[in-house]
Amino acid sequence: MNQFSYIFLFFLVASLLLKLWLNKRQMFHITLHRNNVPKDFKGKIDLDAHQKAADYTLAKTQVATISNILGSGLLVMLTLGGVINILVDVSQAQIANDLWAGVAIIMSVFIISHLIELPIDIYQTFKIEQQFGFNRMTAKQFVKDQFLQVSLMLIIGIPILYALLLVMGKMGEYWWLYAWLLTLTFTFFMTWLVPTVIAPLFNKFTPLEDEQLKTRIQSLFERCGFKSNGIYVMDGSKRSGHGNAYFTGIGNNKRIVFYDTLIESLNTDEIEAVLAHELGHFKCKHIVKHMLASTVITLLGFALLGWLKQQTWFFDGLGMVMINDAIALLLFILVTPIFTTFLSPIGSHFQRKFEFEADAFASTMAKPEHLIQALVKLYRENASTLTPDPIYSNFYHSHPPASVRINHLKSLSKTAL
Question: What is the pTM of this model?
Answer without folding.
Answer: 0.89
